[in-house]
Amino acid sequence: DTAVSQTPKYLVTQMGNDKSIKCEQNLGHDTMYWYKQDSKKFLKIMFSYNNKELIINETVPNRFSPKSPDKAHLNLHINSLELGDSAVYFCASSLTRQGGQPQHFGDGTRLSIL
Amino acid sequence: AQSVTQPDIHITVSEGASLELRCNYSYGATPYLFWYVQSPGQGLQLLLKYFSGDTLVQGIKGFEAEFKRSQSSFNLRKPSVHWSDAAEYFCAVGSYNTDKLIFGTGTRLQVFP
To answer: Which of B9, B101, B107, B109 to mutate to test the interface with A (most CBs of A within 10 A)?
Structure first.
């Protein structure tokens, strides 16, 4: 059973389009995250949610809007896609927000903007 | 400023050789330190973590890491590398009062037979 699953795995689209990435975790964790990994493999947190409540928002453009319908799901919607949005987006979850909790990652969604 | 530095972008070793991947951090509070591994096309997997106590920590897949406060380092080691260890390795720092992790830029490990 996949613990943290993301769909789609690959997403190729044109500039200006709107797209969504879905994430689900079956670990019973309270906290979920979105990370962006750029072409140089640099990994940076974008958002975190705890029990459907937004906790961390790392000055991400407001074209990015996370939504958490329940604590097992955290989706990422991106409006007006730009070339610079090309990256791999990772969803992750942890048991709680407590510092030091291991984070469990999905396999990533590779977003390519044409 | 809080940061993690992994000085080696790319390391190549022969199978069976020993390995050490370097990690230095700059963090205002008492750090919690982590090593994650990313295999191609996959997400990150936790190898080991250090919070307090014994400064030598053991992880999965035969890896260990040593915390040296005086050097602000948390280097990852393995006595004998296997071809399946070829991957990207990330060091990360956090703290007791936050779940936000700051990652290094990663070290790509290549293993030759």
So the answer is: B101
Q: Would you mind telling me the total number of residues written for chain A in this entry?
A: 114
pLDDT at position A1, please? 64
Confidence of residue B29 (pLDDT cuts 50, 70, 90): confident
Cα-based angle A46, B43, B108 (whole degrees, multiple of 5): 100
Quickly count helices (H) and strands (E) in chain B. Answer: 0, 12
pLDDT score of B64: 98
Phi, psi of A84 (to 5 degrees): -70, -10
Return the structure tokens found at A40.
């140089």
User: How far from B45 is each of A55, A63, A107, B19, CA to CA, in Å?
Assistant: 23, 29, 10, 19
Interchain pair A43, B45: CB under 8 A: no
Q: What is the pLDDT of residue B98?
A: 82
Distance from CA of A114 to the nearest CA of B (A): 21
Token look-up 């990852």 returns B76
